[in-house]
Amino acid sequence: MLQLKPTIVEFLRCEVGDGRSASFWYDSWTEFGQLISYLGEAGPRLLCIRKDAKVVEATRSGNWVFPAARSDNSQALMVALADHSPPESSKGRDAFLWRNASGNFIPSFSSKETWEQLRIHSPLVPWADVIWFKEHVPRFSFVSWLALIARLPTRDRLRRWGMNTPASCVLCSNGEENHNHLFFECTFSSSVWGFFAAKFISFPPATLSAASSWILLHNLPQNTKLISILKLLLQTVVYHLWKERNSRLFTGVASTAAALRLIIDRTMRSRLLSFPGPSLLSSSLLAVYFSRLSYPL
Ligand SMILES: [Zn+2]
After folding, report:
1. CA 250 to centroid of ligand 1, rounded, Å
2. What is the pLDDT of residue 129?
3. Which of 296, 213, 211 is nearest to 262 (CA)?
4. What gap in Å lies between CA 187 and CA 184, rounded to an integer?
5. DSSP code of residue 54
6. Distance between CA 96 and CA 67 in Å, rounded?
């Protein structure tokens, strides 16, 4: 999963010239970084400098002007600033410098170099194999990926963001909607997933992460076709459950679990149909799927 380092400020540094553009509190123009972070919200009151002040406003007649230090941090700042020459018009305008790949600060901004430094390179997550594979359907993979990393806008998340939305699950009305509930603690979800999974696995995994782990664990050469079908099945189920949830929420149209199973079955067949077996002697994915599934749904 992609993570970002907490602040962009460390990638942008300001070299003070006339001090008329650089923000005293929010630009990184001393070795202390952003002074509002260093001194905290009390900083503007301690130094008698407004929050929106430019660096030049901390000077008078070419000298720094501060009240007596009232904390260790503000004292350390004043000692450090004694080595900074105050802003002057003759120094030209304030310059903003970006850190490049080698760690030097330069005037030109490169989105690529900055992005490469901002992102933390994480090892490839093991379940990537469960999500992206030859037979995958891009929109199914995308929703399944978000479901696996718990990033779908489920009601528990919306409520945490302060939105005034009910907590209940629209699929079963019998639980609170969150990722674990939707995939597949919910009675509606588990009746869809469990139905298909039981055709392929003796003791079907009951959660999305357990299903992913099961697939990874059994991803062996002798199981290639079965695993391809299960990967497709998992993302088809996840996608259609999420779609059904959205349909109920936004259009008021609800399908029964039996109707959803039919849709999923048709989707599976039409997708598998586009992958014929490599030879007449080798069964196709669709044939393997048929051999496992019995009717009626
Ligand atoms: Zn539910």
Report:
1. 16
2. 87
3. 296
4. 8
5. B
6. 28
- In this prediction, residues 120-148 reach a mean pLDDT of 83
- The DSSP bridge partners found for residue 119 are 4
Per-residue pLDDT at 140 exceeds 60: yes
CA of 160 to the centre of ligand 1 (A): 19
Helix (H, G, I), strand (E, B) or coil at 259: helix
Residue where the block lists tokens 């004292």 = 75
- Distance from residue 215's CA to the centre of ligand 1 (Å): 24
Question: Is pLDDT above 80 for 294?
Answer: no
Cα separation, 98 vs 114, whole angstroms: 8
Nearest alpha-carbon partner for 36 in 80, 73, 63, 5: 73
What residue segments make up the domains of the chain, in order of their start? 3-120, 128-292
Distance, in Å, from the CA atom of 233 to the CA atom of 133, rounded to the nearest integer, reads: 12
- Which pairs count as long-range contacts for 250-254, CB under 8 Å and 24+ apart, including other chains? none
What protein residues have CB closer than 5 angstroms to ion ligand 1? Answer: 169, 171-172, 175, 186
* Mean pLDDT of all residues in 134-150: 90
Read off the pTM.
0.59
List the Cα angle 187/192/198 in 5-degree steps: 105
Count, residues in the chain:
297
